[in-house]
Amino acid sequence: MKRKFYGFMFYNEKLPLVFLILIIFSFRSVYSSDLQHKHSDFILCRLCGHNIAPATHVINIQSPAAEKIYNRSLFGLDNVEVQRIRNPLGIEFNIVLSTGGTCVGRRERWKSHNSWFPGYLWKPCFCSNCSQHIGWIFEPIQSAHEERAYASTKGFYALILDNIISEDYSDSLLATPKISSRDEL
Ligand SMILES: [Zn+2]
Fold this sequence. Notes:
Protein name: CULT domain-containing protein
Domain CULT: 40-168
Order of helices and strands: HEEEEEEEEEEEEH
InterPro entries: CULT
Organism: Nezara viridula
Structural class: alpha+beta
Bound molecules: zinc ion
Number of helices: 2
Helix content: 10-25%
């Protein structure tokens, strides 16, 4: 009877630790999922073409708030996870994540409510050239200082897919030959 009792106690004490380890491992496996980098494309602001981030900085971290997650080939990468997500006002966004870039946050307090990524505070970020809203910075609580304008190495960006464009795709549009009636003469 006594051994059974100790066995029960052991189980109860270690259970939270086991869950924590499972959560960490599942997070790491998602964080380092297989993004295959074909070549170095860039992510640009769709409005002005300013460089937002190298495609090599794209990462996959799944948000528990995502309504849908689907894989797409984007920015020269296979298996980019696009997450459909909704803000408290009911506005829907399709987002991709990046570890670094030029999307700049304003000097304002970081917000904790309705964070799509638990454990991270957030604030919106904007194109540093044309001020278009590009997405949000997510930063761990410890490094979310008010004056921080860019994500630290422990933070990341959620970029709104509708507001960014691939540099390669943009170049392909510019390279399209235009034949006017004058050329045909
Ligand atoms: Zn811009």
